[in-house]
Amino acid sequence: MKKKILDVKNIKTSFFTHLGEVQAVRGISFDLYEGDVLGIVGESGSGKSVTSLTIMNLIEEPGRLKEGEIIFDDIDISKLNNREMSEYRGNEIAMIFQDPMTSLNPVYTIKNQMMEVIRRHTDLTKAEAFERAKELLDLVGIPDPELQIHDYPHQFSGGMRQRALIATAISCNPKLLIADEPTTALDVTIQAQILELLKDLQKKTNMTIILITHDLGVIAEVSTHVIVMYGGLIMEKGTVEDIFYRHQHPYTKGLYRSIPKTTKKDKDRLIPIEGSPPDLMNPPTGCPFSPRCPHTMKICLEKQAPLFNLSETHTSACWLQHMDAPDVKGFTKTKEAK
Amino acid sequence: MDERKPLLEVRNLKKYFDKSRGFFKREKRILTAVDGINLHIYKGETFGLVGESGCGKSTTGRTIVKLYKPTDGEILFNGVDLATIPEKDMLPYRRKIQMIFQDPYASLNSRMTVTDIIGEGIDTHKIFDDQEDPELAKQEKIYELLESVGLKREHASRYPHEFSGGQRQRIGIARALAVDPELIICDEPISALDVSIQAQVVNMLEDFQKERELTYLFIAHDLSMVKYISDRIGVMYIGKMMEIATSDDLYDKPLHPYTKALLSSIPVPDPNNPNKGSRIVLEGDVPSPINPKEGCRFASRCYYARVTMAKENYPASFSNALIGKTSIKTILNPESREIIVAENQVITDFAATLIDELGFTEVLVGKAKCFTETPELVEVRKNHYAACHYIEEINKDIL
Questions:
Q1: Which residues of A fall within a CB distance of 8 Å from B221?
Q2: How far apart are CA B199 and CA A295, in angstroms?
Q3: Does A43 touch chain B if contact means CB atoms closer than 8 Å?
Q4: Does residue A28 belong to any structural domain of this protein?
Q5: Which DSSP category does B21 fall into?
Q6: What's the ipTM?
Q7: A229 at B interface, C-beta within 8 A
Q8: Quick one: A123 and A248 in the same domain?
Q9: I need a labelling partner for B357 at 20 to 30 A (CA). Which of B84, B110, B301, B388 fits?
Q10: Tens digits of residue pLDDT in B51-61
Q11: pLDDT, averaged across chain A
């Protein structure tokens, strides 16, 4: 039996701006077991990054976690204050961001920045921390760490910076690593290197990873489980096979159809999702996808669908899965999840 | 080349930027953004240009419309060389060649209404001046354009900030179409858009192409979208064209080692993708385009351009054999950790002797030809061009 690492219960995060309340995350729940690689996929504004920042307790004014619990190691970390939370950040949960240049301080060397993190979270001596930093750089594939560790971030290329950040993030053997669009700013050949590195590290250390991305290809490459988000809610959730081969939610279907398949020989016309994503200042009352959905029914406009159990691992939040729904090709009717 | 006449033909196009520095700029640093590329685009087709950031694909597009003055080369549009004609004669060609930009936020003037943005080109090129009421004709045309890109008449008096990214890109497309161009240079038109919106814009571009016989130069780094939209594709790497082929050929039978690596790095949206394990992961980063050395630009990362030299194979003198070879990896003195030869540097007499004395038994060196001669882009198969010295050796099974 795998150990449960994280249990996110119905979190709602809003930003209280002068224009009004922006409901970025509107009640999502999921759990995560040791060694899982959870991919969270969604478009800009779907709430995927805010979800990860909420878990890290990094939401700043005017944002606030309105309700919900985040259970990590039997403790609700959402209730911790900043000082208590800093015991978790880095030690237990680490995070890497999209833009490696803005996450590194340009006036300190890589050595400085890595040692600061290691010394803060462990009781290693200076010399030991320096050795550990070099070991880590070697582990993430920086050539000649002995020399390169003395460099400043600007002397590193984008790919090397991201490697250095990954090295820093894993320096205290965190149980959970959150990677927010870690390869979006990189070129494809460098992206391939970083994805290989993440997969490799995950295998070696059995680390649990949350990977946030908008690229379904990246998800398919590394994830074991997937959450599809839209308008601050979970639309569909399952194993990577569930989401890629047995997707049920109209949004997941639409997303999958709107990307070209390079493996396919003949050219099918792309089927876009018409319309544009919802305004989270005034989210629709019902399902956030209903204004763009080809199957919208009356109930979709009135009430958000609960998650329906399609299998033990697979749930989807669409009214077409309800027992009383009309029969539509490609949709399985089933019972509501508890 | 086939018998069709190209609409646009680019011959040996070069665009260098002077990045010299120091007192009186004595330290000469020339950034070779585009370094002698050839391509031709037929009427009605879509030519995709792909490559990693800094490979010169956007500079190529901008040089073709002469937003940059070309350093050398010819840009033949319908047989007229745009590179040499004076700026005052460019106006009619600026109408025939339009451009769509990547960032829909930066490319629309935030102080102009949609009508002003779309109408600007119509005014500049005096398109409706022969009409009885040019203003009315212009307004009608703007409404018609807005509707054809999926926006509404009411949107005409609004400002760009009132629109989403996808809608702004539609305005950018309407602006390009307003002057009835023949060629549109699309510089990463969908990179800034969400996945579900990308397909909307791509479908629209395809529809316009059919309706109006448009020709596209489609610049992008998203290889799967480029394959989808293009008839033929050119692959660039640090200012040089590496391979040109029809989009099916390029994806099914890539010949150049760089193209092979590039294609195998695309993450495939299929968890059980059979090629998952056989990915070619390139080592290292894209080298700098400033003052590039002779030889193939890809040589430093190419997995075919390297050979291992073992001491036992050179009974006479290992050091003599090493002299003049290119070092692929930085060679360090194992004890003092001093660099003996840096990456991609020629091994000197002194360094070779040192390597031998320090007891190296194997050294990874580059194939001489790859590091000293720049390969030409040649037609390897029908309509399939590649620039690599060892193209036949590498592709024995295909060619």
A1: 187-188
A2: 20
A3: yes
A4: yes
A5: B
A6: 0.83
A7: no
A8: no
A9: B301
A10: 988 899 999 99
A11: 91
